[in-house]
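Discussion board: Methods & Data

I've been asked by a reviewer to show the raw model output for two of the constructs in my manuscript, not just the figures. I'm not sure how much to include, so I'm pasting the format here to get opinions. Each protein appears as its amino acid sequence followed by a line of discrete structure tokens. Is this the kind of thing reviewers expect to see in a supplement, or should I convert it first? Here is construct A:
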Amino acid sequence: MDKLHTQKTELFESLLPFIAQKGWHIDAINQWAFENTHDKALLQLHFPEGISDLINFLNEKLNHDLINALEKTDLSQMKIPVKIKTALMKRFELMYPYKDILYQGQQYFKNPLHLSQALKNIYKTVDVIWFAIGDQTSDFNFYTKRLTLSAIYSSSFCYWLKDESQDIINTNMFIDRRLESLKIIPNIKKRIKTLFSSYSFR
């Protein structure tokens, strides 16, 4: 980890108590800046877009940590649904220390102006998961897999945020139910291909 990234990570961690108190809002940054006037230049250097950059950084950090965790996990004998479930449960394990501020993030993403950012971060996460579990598809399946997993991940994430069961067993079972939708991928692919083949582009 280079010096700048270490500095950025430490800066992010110092902002977390203020985000926990104020939410993902400019007030959190303003309060932090008021108490850390000597670090204002660093804040502008590492997070020039403020809250947006902070959220993106957390997602990137969690994605990086997930890759490292899955590299240490033997997935070779697992079927794809089990690999995906393993990745999702590991992701939620990594997110646990940030659960309170992630819950507050729902308010931030209720703003339609932030929708594209939410979609981009979801895509980056599911893309990381597919590659981490060894998927190398480059054809039409590339898109259907990510679209389907995006729906599974986002719904599981919302469920996890409110799950207070021991060892998040309820989230575990919820993922099992949602993974059933993976079975429709071949049918989606077939239907869309049939739809496109019915048109003549001349």
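Construct B, same format:
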Amino acid sequence: MATQRENILTTATQLFYEQGYDKTSFQELADLLDITKSLISYHFKSKSLLAKAVTERYSVNNKNAIAFKLYQQYFSKHRYDLQLSSAVEIRLSTELFFRDPNAARYIIETLNGNYEDAYISHYKQFYIIHDRQYHLNINPDIDEISLLARGASGASQAVITDFINGNIDCTMNECLDYIVEMIFRFMRIDEARISELIAMSKKIISQIDFQFLPYFEIN
């Protein structure tokens, strides 16, 4: 049975997707769930923190769905490559916002609302996993993992926002290529390897039937 917190997240996801972040209120959520606003505030201190939790949930769900499909249709026949898997995940997770106008509206409105709540915790885990696998020469004395995660997420969000708003003169594929390239550059990956990852990830995506579905879902 779903918990009260999970019910709030599910209903908030629906409203954020259907009508946007700006038009969604705690009062509307409370009315739909037949609970009080104070109960929503107990779980989520602000609307921006609720949106952050919604984003974290669908991001992790999409990450797992992409990884599972990659394993079924590609890595079951090929040697597992964390960097390649990540390149596919980054490209698809970003493309969701470019393909779906409701998802695009949501990310624009949430970033305009409270930037300090936009950092998603699993970004740091992404770099921790890559550091363990590839020994990225991270400086632990200055918590460079956190710096990398915040720098890359902030830069990616800026590029995504400007592309959606029409402020960047490039195609969608060129923008997706650049975001993947940028994130691996933050990890100081060799340029030739980055180009290989971009080409291979695009080829894999073309061979696997990934779908962008309503409510921020990739399958």
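Answer (T.O., handling editor elsewhere):
This is acceptable in a supplement if you add a one-line summary per construct. For B, something like: Residues 66-218 form one domain.
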